Amino acid sequence: MTFKNASSMVLALALLAGCSSSEQPQPQAPKVGVVKLAEQQVELTTDLPGRIQASETSEVRPQISGVIRQRLFAEGSYVKAGQVLYEIEDAPYRAALGTAQGNLANAQASVRATQLQADRYRDLVEINAVSKQEYDNAVAAAQQAKANVASQKSAVDSARVNLNFTRIRAPISGRIGRSFYTRGALVQTGQSDPLATIMSTSSVYVDVTQSAAQILNLKEALASGGLSRETSDSARVKLILPNGKTYPIEGRLQFAEVSVDPETGSVALRATFPNPDGMLLPGMFVRARLVEGVKQNAILAPQQGISRDPRGRATALVVNAENKVEMRQVKAERPIGDKWLVTEGLKPGDRLIVEGLSGVQPGATVTPGAPQQITAARAPALAKSATATEKH
User: Which domains does the chain carry?
Assistant: First the structure.
C-alpha cells in the first residue's frame, strides 16, 4: 500500500467517526404513571374490637330449699317471663301452710272470746262487781288476741309464698341455656350456683373502648364543620362478624362512659344492635365499625404514591406544569382502603406519581402518562371506607 492510499484511508475513517458523533440521539425523559387528584366526600370510620353482651341476663336460683321434682323447659329454648321452669317437692310447704292457717283460725276464735269478756267486765266495773285490775287484764287479753291474729296472718302469707316458690318461674323472657341441676337434685336457698341462665337477645349490646385522644379529635372535627353526621345524637355503628362478613343491620352508639380509664387512657362505649334472627350470640368477639361522619373535600392519594423519608415523614412526588418532578411533604392522616387520606401537602389537580418512581429525582424532567396497574381517580363521589385505624 502506498503512502497516498494510506492517507486517504485515515481521512475517510476520521470523517465517518465525526458523522457518528454528530448523529447520536439525546436521552429521552423517563416515563412515569400519574394520578390526577380530586376532592371527594369520604365516610370516615374507626374499627374497634368488642364483645357482644345480652341486653338482659338472669341467673335462675331457688328461693327455698328442697328436692327438684321435675324440669319443665327444653334447654336452649325461648322462655317467657313467668313461665314455670322447675318444680320443687312441695309436700313440706303445703303442710306448713296448713299449720299456719290452723293457728290463724285459733287466734281468730280467741279474739272473739277475749273481746266478749272485756265487754262484760266494762259493764261490771261500773257497778263495782269486778275490780278495775280484772277489767284491765281482760282488755289486755283482747288486744293480745288481736295482735296474735295479725301475726298468724303473716305466718300464713309467708307459708303461701314459700309454697309458690316451689314453682320456680322465669324472671325475664329470653333464651335459656343448659340446666345445671337435674330431677332429684337438692337445691338450697342462697346457693352460689344457678340452676340455669336466661339471656334476652332480641337486641344486644356491643361493648368497645376508644382512646380519649380519638374522641377529642372527633369532637373537634364535628365542631369545626370538617366532619358532618346525619344525626347528632348518636353515631352509626356497623358490625364485622368473626367470619369477616358485615352484619346486615346497623346499630347505634347509645352510651359512653363518663370518665376515662386512668390505666389505659380509653373510654368505654356501648352500641345497641337489633338481633331478630339470633345471629349475634353473647360473648362473641366482633369488630365494631364506628361511622364517625362524612368528611367534605377530602384528598385520597393511592398508597403507592406515598413514601417515607429517612426521618419517617410522609412524602410524595408530583409532576408540575413543566413536567418536572417536585417533592412534597404531606400529612397522611389515615388509610382508607388502598388510599391515604391526605390533609396537608397535596391539592386538587396535582399529578401524583404512582408508577416509575425508581430512579426519579426531584427536578428531573419526566413524561407523565396513565398508570398501567392503578385506575385513575374518578370524579368526586361518596367513597365508602374500609378499615380505618387511627394512629394512637
Answer: 32-53+202-383 (2.40.30.170), 63-89+166-193 (2.40.50.100), 91-164 (1.10.287.470)
